[in-house]
Structure formats: structure tokens, C-alpha cells
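Hi R.,

Here's the chain you asked about this morning:
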Amino acid sequence: MKQTHKTRLLDYLSQYKSITSLKAIIDLGNTRLSATIFTLRDEGHPIETKSVKVPTRWGTMTNVAQYILKK
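And the predicted structure, written out as C-alpha cells:
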């Protein structure tokens, strides 16, 4: 079966339970995580969004979306 952004993301979420956009870029090469999440939700996958604080390179904090697979 051909690997796609959807299949890679589902495999990743099955193993690690959650992902952020930075991890998606680094680990999966997916630069459009929210679009892939939208598609998976539309197909019925139970994915929740949580806002988490992460440090920036300038020493401040910012919020990013963390997507969590619920089963």
C-alpha cells in the first residue's frame, strides 16, 4: 500500500498518541498538518485539539495546537 500523509499520520498517532506541527514536519515531512487532520476528522477519526505552550527561539512562550487521537 502506498504511504500518504494520512496513513503516515494515522500510524504516528497510533504509536505516539499526539503530534504538533513541528513534529509533523520533522518526523513525517508533513507541512500541512491541519489539512490532514481535517481530512481524517471528516473520515470519522476521533482527533481532539489541545492548546499547549512551547518555548520559542527567543526565550518566550507561544501556544501551538497538539492533536490527540482518542480511541
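The helical segments are 5-16, 21-28, 33-42.

Let me know if you need anything else.
M.
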